[in-house]
Automatic annotation (TrEMBL):
Positions in coiled-coil regions: none
Organism: Microbispora triticiradicis
Name of the molecule in the record: Oxygen sensor histidine kinase NreB
CDD domains: HATPase_UhpB-NarQ-NarX-like
Origin organism lineage: Bacteria, Bacillati, Actinomycetota, Actinomycetes, Streptosporangiales
Gene Ontology molecular function, alphabetical: kinase activity
Keywords attached to this entry: 4Fe-4S, Cell membrane, Cytoplasm, Iron, Iron-sulfur, Kinase, Membrane, Metal-binding, Transferase, Transmembrane, Transmembrane helix, Two-component regulatory system
Compartment(s) where it occurs, according to its Swiss-Prot or TrEMBL record: Cell membrane; Cytoplasm
Membrane-traversing stretches: 30-55, 67-86, 93-117, 129-150, 162-183, 209-227, 239-256, 262-282, 294-319
Biological role stated in the UniProt entry: Member of the two-component regulatory system NreB/NreC involved in the control of dissimilatory nitrate/nitrite reduction in response to oxygen. NreB functions as a direct oxygen sensor histidine kinase which is autophosphorylated, in the absence of oxygen, probably at the conserved histidine residue, and transfers its phosphate group probably to a conserved aspartate residue of NreC. NreB/NreC activates the expression of the nitrate (narGHJI) and nitrite (nir) reductase operons, as well as the putative nitrate transporter gene narT.
Length: 690
């Protein structure tokens, strides 16, 4: 064959391993739910057949229920297993529940069928049915009692070392099934007395030893949950706790034994249900809260029952004549102490579940003792430390006005929530991932609900302290700038003029006798220079405070400004400028008067220069605060405007006094400047403009 033909027909290569894995994963996703549903339907069908077989057998003297625990397991385990497979097909836990339930249904049907055949006189299928029942039961035991705890809740084993208990248990179960297979059927049925006497002791001892090995292997498998719980984070711990709590309802009746062991049949469905909830919906429920409430409820039942017993016994011994009042006395006593007992039991449960640092009210009490002795910054840090200890997280941070206060190491943020102080947002809180502790976040909501208001109070205090510090810095800076301006104006303007006037006076004295005309000219120039000095002094005084405010008051000074601005309005028949004053403007703080005057002055300057307005209206209204409004009907501000020096100066003057200044404008519809200034005298109304 030519070489080019070999290139055209290359050998078929096997797909890479990762491609085959993806293909297998795709098949599991595609066909897994259907297979799981088929297994559940098969198990239910076997249970329906077992119902008919059980009806042919005499009732059990040990179980008052018409069904056995295996019937419940064969029905509920496949159903919840199918739900898990449908939601997460690649997770082995759902498949184990399905197969374990199917094995339980097959076991009980085979065992009851064999018992029915024995009851009817025997049949050749009795021994195969017993062997099949034992084999299926051993597989079910291995799936649910060994593999399930070893793989729960992630579907992966902790390490290869944990394969040892699984291997030992599998060997013991295999040998146990081998014993069942080689043993004569008469050992079970008791048909041949000689065979029973010869073989039964060895059979019983061997299987008993193998069962002990299986029990040890299962105990080791369940101990892996303890190790996994110790290493796990909060979410995985919650997943482990759900089935453990459900198993308590199964194990307790079995430990007590006869006559209450059969109640485990009723609690058996809780185990697969808890596994399904833990795997699929673990974030929605708080297992620690459930345990806490269960402990409190059990404690209350025990205490109330003890009270009734003690009161009843005491009344029988001491007050036998009035024994009919014993129940009433017990009820009154239990009712009077119900709430104190409940609170005490709740504290004990919280302490057992969360330790000393888990009680929200104890945390709040300790925080209240620390806050009065700390400055604002340390108070916020103390609140964050207490909250971090209560939540058992790696770190908590609070962002306030661009600054961050951190307690611990936040790392990746697990939760973010706003801090609100009396309806006002003051910052945001960043909560880090949970650290190691016994129980996860269900208890955290109680801790956050109790301690978050303290954090918000501390954050608001820090915000106020920062704002006060910035206000002081602005006031000091403005004062220093004002002093620098006065120094410059006095030195460069008035100082130089006075020095020149002194030199002129000296020249006039020198030339007075020799040239009176020259002296007269010098004195005349000196007189004109004095007029310039007077104007400079007035300008300096005007820069500190407009004289019109002292001469005319705020209303009169504003009217004077409006009259000066009137010629700058656009010509037209409706050209007008008006001032409206409502409320009493007397007694306003000097800083408020200056700020209002400057804001009106700047707004009118913008109207003259840019607005091309025909009408302008100024309103001064005092009602608890001073509201200043300057409105025109000009062209308005452009849509892409940038705030200039004038607009910024108006906003800064209002902000210095704790007020606001807003500019509203629509192109072609004029501009409105609205300033709100506090009109009550106080320490915050000082500063550079007073």
């Amino acid at each position: 064959m030519p070489v080019h033909d070999q290139k055209e027909f290359p050998p078929v290569a096997r797909p890479p391993l990762d491609t085959r894995a993806r293909d297998w994963s795709g098949r599991v996703r595609a066909y897994g739910p259907a297979v799981a549903v088929a297994i559940a339907c098969a198990a239910i069908a076997l249970e329906i057949g077992d119902i008919w077989v059980t009806a042919q057998l005499p009732p059990s003297p040990y179980n008052p229920l018409p069904f056995a625990p295996e019937d419940v397991a064969g029905t509920t385990f496949p159903i919840f297993g199918a739900l898990l497979v449908i939601s997460r097909p690649r997770l082995l836990l759902g498949w184990l529940l399905c197969l374990g339930g199917l094995g339980s249904a097959a076991n009980i049907l085979a065992a009851n069928t064999a018992a029915l055949l024995v009851l009817n006189g025997g049949h050749p299928l009795v021994h195969p049915l017993w062997v099949f029942a034992d084999g299926v039961w051993n597989l079910t035991t291995y799936a649910l009692g060994v593999l399930l705890p070893l793989l729960y809740p992630t579907g992966r084993i902790l390490s290869k070392r944990w394969c040892v208990p699984g291997a030992i248990t599998a060997t013991a179960l295999g040998l146990d099934w081998l014993c069942s297979w080689i043993a004569p059927s008469s050992v079970r049925t008791g048909g041949n007395a000689l065979e029973v006497a010869a073989f039964a002791p060895y059979y019983a001892q061997t299987r008993q030893g193998l069962h002990m090995v299986v029990a040890v292997g299962m105990a080791l498998a369940f101990s892996s949950l303890v190790v996994r719980f110790h290493r796990a984070d909060g979410i995985e711990r919650r997943q482990i706790l759900w089935p453990l709590v459900a198993m308590a309802g199964l194990v307790v009746p079995w430990v007590i034994g006869y006559p209450v062991w059969w109640t485990a049949t009723l609690t058996l469905p809780l185990v697969p249900a808890a596994i399904a909830v833990a795997v699929l919906r673990y974030r929605l429920y708080g297992i620690d809260t459930l345990i806490s409430r269960a402990l409190v409820g059990a404690g209350l039942v025990g205490v109330v029952a003890a009270v009734y017993v003690l009161v009843g016994a005491g009344s029988s011994l001491v007050l036998s004549g009035v024994d009919r009042f014993a129940g009433l006395a017990a009820a009154l006593f239990a009712g009077a102490f119900f709430h104190p007992i409940r609170r005490g039991l709740q504290r004990l449960a919280d302490h057992a579940l969360y330790g000393r640092g888990g009680d929200p009210h104890a945390l709040a009490a300790g925080l209240r003792r620390r806050l009065p002795h700390a400055d604002p910054a340390h108070a916020l840090l103390a609140a964050l430390e207490v909250l971090r200890d209560g939540l058992s997280v790696t770190g908590i941070a609070v962002e306030i006005d661009g600054k961050t206060t951190t307690s611990g190491r936040v790392g990746p943020v697990a939760r973010e929530m706003p801090l609100v102080w009396h309806g006002e947002p003051v910052g945001r809180m960043l909560i880090g991932p949970p650290g190691r502790r016994r129980f996860p976040a269900a208890h955290d909501e109680r801790v956050i609900a109790v301690l978050a208001p303290y954090v918000a109070d501390a954050a608001h205090t820090v915000l106020l302290t920062t704002a006060l510090q910035r206000s002081r810095e602005r006031i000091l800076t403005a004062g220093e700038e004002e002093r620098r301006r006065l120094r410059r104006d006095l030195h460069d303007g008035l100082g130089q003029t006075l020095a020149s006037m002194a030199m002129t006076l000296n020249a006039a004295r020198v030339s007075l006798e020799r040239s009176p005309d020259a002296a007269d000219t010098l004195l005349r120039d000196l007189r004109e220079g004095m007029d310039t000095v007077t104007a400079d002094v007035r300008q300096l005084v005007y820069g500190l405070r407009p004289p019109a405010l002292d001469d005319l008051g705020l209303a009169g000074a504003v009217r004077a400004l409006v009259e000066e601005a009137r010629p700058g309005l656009a010509a037209g028949a409706e050209s007008a400028a008006e001032v409206e004053v409502t409320g009493d403007l007397a007694g306003l703080p000097a800083a408020v008067e200056v700020a209002a005057y400057r804001i009106v002055q700047e707004a009118l300057t913008n109207v003259r220069k840019h607005a091309r307005a025909r009408r302008v209206r100024v309103v001064l209204h005092r009602n608890g605060e001073l509201r200043v409004t300057v409105a025109d009907d000009g062209v308005g501000l452009p849509a892409n405007r940038r705030a200039g020096v004038g607009l910024c100066s108006m906003a800064e003057r209002a902000a210095e006094l704790g007020g606001t200044c807003a500019v509203a404008s629509e192109p072609g519809h004029g501009t409105t400047v609205t300033a709100r200034l506090p009109a009550v005298p106080g320490p915050s109304l000082g500063g550079a403009w007073s």
